[in-house]
Specification:
Length: 135
């Protein structure tokens, strides 16, 4: 029994060490639903916020009907040359009732500023399949 516990403890230590050894250099970018408030967004609109761990965050605001909002499970982004391409994560639905209600969503674009030192010059474009407004 003690051998079994020792083996489990050893494996847990190895797994723990491997997850901690991933450096910040392996991180490129990600997109997520914002953790900030609307007041924070208004103070920092159009600015990149710098953090100690070589990370910068830009918060984007999306306002419209509920069916036009990004899908948090499927949204994504990629960086090509000097452009950030933000993908809403779903296709445009022409049958959506846009006249009923409105919604607001804050999205964070998180970048590793070591890998993208020109982050403040990046252009943001939107990919929203079959949408006549985002081409």
């Amino acid at each position: 029994m003690t051998k079994f516990i020792s083996i489990i403890a050893f494996l847990l230590m190895v797994c723990s060490c491997r997850t901690q050894s991933k450096s910040a250099a392996s991180f490129n970018y990600l997109v997520r639903q914002s953790r900030f408030t609307l007041e924070h967004f208004k103070k920092n609109e159009n600015n990149w916020i710098q953090f100690k761990n070589d990370t910068v965050i830009k918060t984007l605001r999306f306002k419209g009907s509920g069916c036009d909002m990004p899908s948090t499970e499927n949204m994504n982004m990629k960086i090509e040359r000097d452009t950030i391409i933000f993908d809403f994560g779903h296709s445009f639905d022409p049958n959506c009732k846009r006249e009923t209600g409105s919604a607001l969503m804050l999205i964070d674009l998180v970048l590793n500023k070591r890998k993208y030192p020109n982050y403040d010059k990046l252009i943001i474009r939107y990919k929203y399949d079959n949408n006549p407004w985002y081409k």
